[in-house]
Amino acid sequence: MSFCFKSIYKSQKKIELCKKSLPILPNILKKNFFSSFSSRTIAGVVFVFLGAVCYSSKSIFAKLLYQHEIDTLSLIALRMTFAMPFYLLIALFYKPKVTKQITRQEWLYTMGLGFLGYYFTSILNFWGLQYVTATVERLIVFIYPTLVILISAIFYKKVIKPKQYLALLLTYIGILTAFIGNIQLSAQKNFLWGASLIFVSAFTYALYLVWAENLIKKIGSISFTAWTMVFSGIFVAIHYMLFAQKDIWHYSQTVYSLSFGLALVATVLPSFLVSAGISRIGSNNAGIVASIGPISVIILAYIFLNEQADFWQYIATLLVLTGILMITIQPKEKKTKQEEIDIM
User: What is the pLDDT of residues 201-222, one digit of tens each?
Assistant: First the structure.
């Protein structure tokens, strides 16, 4: 009998101890589990995620615009017409922390990079989009980190690591897989021509990133992006005035609404959302989050374009994502001042 009373007494003691401990548990969880997820980190992930999805919508807007019989030059001109005011305001009024005065030669260099990275690259990319699906376009464009590695190895003698060789192999097998699926189905006219144009656009964008590295360090990613887009807009305007065969203002209201969406949602917002995200979580983590791009295109293309990805495209997406993540995920190193600009 006394044993039973002792057991009850001990049980009551344990219950009281648990009651005292319960209020402490949320604090312990908060300190140990949630401490690694600060509001700054969460904001950075959200910014990069939204930026990647917004930029992926570029091919969706372009495909919808092509349904209204707009030519590539007019499409790019309308995009820059609506985007230019935003970039011009940022370029003029945003004050970066520049330690040294920007020289005339550096301004000319920035102008040249604007021509290469956002004018010439955009023309090739939108031209190629007439012949391939939005999903295939995003897959090809997404390989630009591998092209950066190859360019750096060829021209700057940077050593390619064994892990990077495997990543390159997986990525390009993925691209070939996407090609095989489309060629067998014969679903798209001039598919190889369009895919080639987009591949060259990815290559020129990779060149742009490699050559822009030092200027980004000096000017800062936000100011550099704004000025290169302003210069790109000037080149587009000159091109349109010299070669356009139609008045840019003769299209329907739907075309202008879609063009404004292309400019704001798929051009202006992602470039600064990604920059804001990188400043909070770093370029390594940002690259991982941004890998949502090709997946988001598959979903958006299904919703807005009724494009259904086939078995080969799913396999290609898996291979390309694996290869890009192998390049993106790197061991922690000392932080540098280098910043990525945006997601092509």
Answer: 999 999 998 898 888 888 888 8
Tokens of 34: 């949630």
Is the Cβ–Cβ distance between 8 and 15 less than 8 Å? no
* pLDDT at residue number 310: 78
Give the burial class of 334: count Cβ atoms within 10 A of its Cβ; 0-12 exposed, 13-18 middle, 19 or more buried: exposed
Residue 61: predicted pLDDT: 97
- 335 assigned to some structural domain: no
User: Any idea how long the chain is?
Assistant: 344
pLDDT of 290-333, one tens digit each? 888 888 898 999 999 998 877 888 888 898 888 888 877 666 54
Count the domains in the chain: 1
Q: Phi, psi at residue 133, to the nearest 5°?
A: -75, 165
DSSP states of 177-235: HHHHHHHHHT-STTHHHHHHHHHHHHHHHHHHHHHHHHHHHHH-HHHHHHHHHHHHHHH
Check if the beta carbon of residue 160 is closer than 8 Å to that of residue 149: yes
- Domain assignment of residue 214, given as a range: 37-328
- Give the 3-state secondary structure of residue 334: coil
Q: How far is 113 from 344, CA to CA, in rounded Å? A: 14
